[in-house]
């Protein structure tokens, strides 16, 4: 079942085009990491998806409904953790959660109590006295209390230290990973993503330049080191190569779709030995986004 | 503090079932590697079975437990287990989980092929190893000495692990 679907979604502000044409389809049960450099439009995309910003062109649907005209029913199925936790500083953590609950028909008060206990949130302290990590977790409790099917997080953990980030994400994954929940979270910190994401979407130049399963990405992107018997000709090139450097008999090439077949063909074509290197997500991301920049 | 909550969460899930915890401790996942996490799990289960550390009939840790203990997505663990089932390493026991197959195909030499073909399979790794040694300006002997040293360290570490056990 499709949860999120955008077609040629575009958004520009007065002086800047942020989203050029975004096509993204997210199926139920996926945990999607939305990657992009600072200022690539991750937050704008998320806000357009949730109907917090109106897109200029294209369509955006959540649960089959237009993002800009979501029914109360659809909204009740979405949980949103904004970039900055947002609540009254003078209220206690527990009061904030209950206050939030008043807006929802299906608020599960016991569940919020359990989450707060599980995530070691001091319930009676004033919100302003909480640590950044605790504020973040409070924000997560607020987003989860109505047991949403879709959870959207905008750089949820950017303000935390690495241990806190990992902990927050892990806790979130723990209560949501059952194949029924769908999660979309934006981040520019790749190490957060690699443990938990099933899919990765890379936003660059106002488009999704890559969307695939994380495992598939790692299996398909490879760096090849070619070492030929004689100097490689000036005409040396490989179709689809993202990056290529050549000097004398040696060449290093990054390719998006490497198969045994391709390796054999290249070996014959250029009369060379080939070693294949795996790429981690960070390397894939860098290769893809730098390729995009030079285009 | 974070570690305390982690421990609490784990206890909430498994009570005091420490036996199973001992099994997931055997795994070492490196998320930032270029090898997908499910592959890492598959490789490590294979070598646990191959080395005889996990014998026929051993119940493997549940998907959920692996996910919580290793901080990874449960779907990744499911994927690894499902592939291992297809490969004939694990089998599903109705209602209880997965266990090591009676004659797991990893220890069956016919599946691995002849000694020569197994040696052949190691070739790419050897080529890469030697190429890297060259890049670091090491002679063949020096590179091989590194490999020998690592082998010693591994065997020391595993004998220590046995003593601890």
Q: Can you tag this structure with a few keywords?
A:
heterodimer; A: 295 residues; alpha/beta; 34% helix; B: mainly alpha; 8 helices; 2 strands
SSE topology:
The complex is a heterodimer of chains A (295) and B (165).
Chain A lengths: L1 E12 L2 E12 L3 E5 L6 H9 L6 E6 L2 E2 L5 H4 L2 E4 L11 H9 L7 H10 L13 H13 L5 E5 L7 H15 L5 E6 L2 H7 L2 E6 L2 E7 H7 L1 E7 L14 E5 L2 E6 L4 H11 L1 E7 L2 H14 L1
Parallel strand pairs in A: 3-8, 3-9, 6-7, 7-8
Antiparallel strand pairs in A: 1-2, 1-4, 4-5, 9-10, 11-13, 11-14, 12-13
Chain B lengths: L1 H13 L3 H7 L12 H14 L12 H8 L3 H13 L3 E4 L3 E4 L8 H4 L2 H21 L4 H25 L1
Antiparallel strand pairs in B: 1-2
Gyration radius from CA atoms of chain B, angstroms: 19 Å
Low-pLDDT stretches of chain A are none
User: How many extended strands of chain A?
Assistant: 14
Spatial shape of chain B = elongated
Given the structure, what is the number of helices of chain B?
8
Q: Strand pairing plus helix content of chain A: what structural class?
A: alpha/beta
User: What is the H/E string of chain B?
Assistant: HHHHHEEHHH
Share in helix of chain B: 55-70%
Oligomerization status of the protein chains = heterodimer
Spatial order of the strands forming the largest sheet of chain B: 1-2
Strand order of the largest sheet of chain A: 6-7-8-3-9-10
| Tally of strands of chain B | 2
Largest sheet of chain A: 6 strands, mixed
Shape of chain A: elongated
- Supply the helix-strand structural class of chain B: mainly alpha
User: Total helix count of chain A?
Assistant: 10
Bin the strand percentage of chain A: 25-35%
Biggest beta-sheet profile of chain B = 2 strands, antiparallel
């Amino acid at each position: 079942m499709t949860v999120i679907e955008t077609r040629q979604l575009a958004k520009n502000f007065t002086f800047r085009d942020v989203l050029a044409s975004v096509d993204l389809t997210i199926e139920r049960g996926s945990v999607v990491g939305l990657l992009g450099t600072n200022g690539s439009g991750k937050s704008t995309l998320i806000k357009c998806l949730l109907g917090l910003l109106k897109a200029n062109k294209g369509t955006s649907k959540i649960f089959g409904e237009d993002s800009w005209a979501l029914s109360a029913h659809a909204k009740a199925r979405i949980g949103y953790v904004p970039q900055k936790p947002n609540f009254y500083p003078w209220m206690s953590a527990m009061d904030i959660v209950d206050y939030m609950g008043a807006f929802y028909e299906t608020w599960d008060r016991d569940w919020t109590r359990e989450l707060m206990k599980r995530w070691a949130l001091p319930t009676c302290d004033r919100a302003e006295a909480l640590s950044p990590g605790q504020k973040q977790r409070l924000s997560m409790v607020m987003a989860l209390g109505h047991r949403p099917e879709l959870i959207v997080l905008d750089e949820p953990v950017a303000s935390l230290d690495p241990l806190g980030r990992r902990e927050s994400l892990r806790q979130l994954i723990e209560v949501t990973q059952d194949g029924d929940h769908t999660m979309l979270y934006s981040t520019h910190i790749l190490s957060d993503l690699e443990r938990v994401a099933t899919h990765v979407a890379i936003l660059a130049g106002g488009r999704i330049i890559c969307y695939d399963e994380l495992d598939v990405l790692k299996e398909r992107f490879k760096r090849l080191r070619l070492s030929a018997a004689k100097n490689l000709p000036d005409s040396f090139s490989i179709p689809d190569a993202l990056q290529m450097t050549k000097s004398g008999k040696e060449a290093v090439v990054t390719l998006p779709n490497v198969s045994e077949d391709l390796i054999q063909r290249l070996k014959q074509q250029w009369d060379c030995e080939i070693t294949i290197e795996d790429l981690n997500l960070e390397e894939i991301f860098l290769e893809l986004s730098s390729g995009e920049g030079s285009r | 503090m974070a570690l305390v909550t982690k421990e609490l969460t784990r206890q909430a899930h498994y009570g005091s079932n420490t036996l199973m915890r001992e099994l997931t401790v055997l795994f070492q996942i490196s998320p930032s590697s270029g090898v997908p996490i499910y592959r890492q799990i598959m490789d490590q289960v294979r070598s646990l079975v191959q080395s005889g550390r996990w014998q026929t009939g051993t119940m493997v840790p549940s998907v959920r437990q692996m996910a919580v203990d290793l901080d990874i997505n449960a779907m990744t663990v499911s994927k690894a287990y499902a592939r291992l089932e297809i490969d004939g390493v694990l089998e599903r026991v109705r209602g209880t989980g997965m266990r090591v197959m009676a004659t797991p195909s990893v220890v069956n030499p016919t599946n691995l092929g002849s000694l020569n073909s197994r040696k052949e399979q190691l070739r790419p790794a050897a080529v890469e190893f030697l190429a890297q040694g060259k890049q670091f300006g090491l002679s063949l002997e020096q590179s091989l000495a590194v490999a020998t040293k690592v082998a010693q360290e591994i065997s020391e570490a595993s004998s220590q692990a046995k003593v601890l056990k």
